[in-house]
Amino acid sequence: MGHTHWFKDPERDLGTRGITNDAAKLMIWAKTGGRCGACDCSLSMSEKPRRWQIDHVIPVFKGGRTTFANLMPLCGPCHVIKSAPERSEASRNKARTLTGRGLTHPEKDAVIASLRREVDALRAELVAIQETRYGFEARQPRRIPA
């Protein structure tokens, strides 16, 4: 399938991350005049292997779509510079979503401290209930070590 529909609707979402069609690659390359979208260096369409990448201006993980308007060619070095922090952020977000373990150390410390305060409050509430219900001073439950 060709991507000539982009000429009519550059916001049409292709629904896939990878652009494998040579005509689509040529259109993306040509939209910047064969130059890197970041540093403006010259990019060769004929060089094998191709030393440039097609990149999402707004990353997919931040809601970017695979549209002609949201794609640009980047030289290898610019692609690495732009993509490395995005990959790291995407990994952290995925880890938080899937496992809940993607927190930084200060964030983890804050969560742990909050949970300890909540456990202490629940223990105190339990002691108060036992004192009220049984009419004597209840033994404090064992504290979880820090």
UniProtKB/TrEMBL annotation:
Keyword annotations from UniProtKB, A to Z: Endonuclease, Hydrolase, Nuclease
InterPro entries: HNH, HNH_nuc
Entry keyword annotation includes Nucleus: no
GO molecular function annotations of the record: endonuclease activity
Organism domain of life: Bacteria
Stretches assigned to the HNH nuclease domain: 23-80
Sequence intervals crossing the membrane: none
CDD domains per UniProt: HNHc
Pfam families: HNH (PF01844)
Protein's recorded name: HNH endonuclease signature motif containing protein
